[in-house]
Amino acid sequence: MPRKILHLDLDAFYCAVEELQDPSLRGKPFAVGGRPDQRGVVSSSSYPARQLGIRSAMPMARALRLCPKLIILPGRHRLYWDMSRRVMDYLHALTPLVEQVSIDEAFVDVSALLEEAEAIARRLQTTINEELNLPCSLGIASNKLVAKIANDFGKKSALIRMNKEGQSGPPNIITVVSPGEEAAFLAPLPAEALWGVGPKTAARLAEVGIHTIGDIATAPEDVLAKRFGKNGVEMRQHALGIDDSPITTSHDARSISQEVTFARDVRDGEALRKTLLELSGGVGKQLRREGLLAKTVKIKLRWPDFTTLTRQVTLPQPTDQDHQIAQSAQELFMKVWTAGRPVRLLGVGVSKLTQPEAEKSASHQLSLWEAGNHRKEALDSILSELEDRFGQGTIQRGKLSQQK
């Protein structure tokens, strides 16, 4: 029997949550993101703003030029994560086979349920609409690939139709691709709609007369293999609607990160180390909030000429503690930064996420190192609680010592 896979996407999620907090925002062009005078970018834009050409990842200064009356809101990520968890709870109530791709997106395998996939999706959508007052769209297919593309296609089609009718709002739509119809559904779509086909690959495909997913599906396999290697063979399989990838319920593929783009390039070492400490604290807090540990710490650096580099290190033991993340981040930073060199962007992230191990038994005697580490863990937890209750910056953390 074919699988029954749902792809859930929360429509303009950050903006939808902000509208819950302030209903007067509904119908207005607004964006969540950074300040335009500090090189901020758009994290999410409302649908009226999207009609004016404002998109995610766009510099906020450019968004303001497109819409001088644009309302700009700072992100409230704790609020977004709390709402995201409530949505994901509904998915987990259906089945344990839930793969959360991001804060506002997930795959759900409902193959084991007797009910038709479309009926399950409509009930789920109604629940999220009515109980959380959030719009969401779903794609339904026999595999993850087609379910995701179906959802993207359905949302775009709905928005085009709504724009023609003078409407502005979330698509909140369900798109179904029946088993056996995968290849026919994909065929007329542009090649870049397929997983793994970015602008460069699409340009190379166009060079040999391949413009749609259907063109890829009918292209000789040896031609694709010669031009793209093993990826060409996989590309053709995907173009035929074939995808056996399972639902991944572990956190291994996820990562957590925070970054800042400075209003002006920063060359002061003390200021950069303080930023590393603050970013590490934010990452550690999110790990603890989600009950996760991280095995890998990484940094991201961008110089004024927009050259960007990343470095990472694997820890001896997984952690969720600020001081361990910060120490590793600083060691990575000092290996690539020279005193006085200006920095445009700085970021700290963690990956290889796992669930915490079972608690040590009460009879386990801690070594001096472990005891000190547990005191730091307790301090991090207390700081997080104070910030949750009284706001960010209630207590300032001490300096991170400079490594020689």
Structural notes for this entry:
With 404 residues, the protein is α+β, with helices and mostly antiparallel strands. The protein has four domains: 105 residues, Alpha-Beta Plaits, CATH 3.30.70.270; 64 residues, MutS, DNA mismatch repair protein, domain I; 55 residues, DNA polymerase, domain 1 (Orthogonal Bundle), CATH 1.10.150; 128 residues, 2-Layer Sandwich (Dna Ligase, domain 1), CATH 3.30.1490. The protein is built from 14 helices and twelve strands. Strands 5-6-1-7-8 form a five-stranded mixed β-sheet. Strand 2 and strand 3 form a beta hairpin. The longest helix has 23 residues. The C terminus is likely disordered.
List keywords for this structure.
4 domains; 14 helices; five-stranded mixed sheet; 404 residues; MutS, DNA mismatch repair protein, domain I; alpha+beta; Alpha-Beta Plaits; four-stranded antiparallel sheet; disordered C terminus; DNA polymerase, domain 1
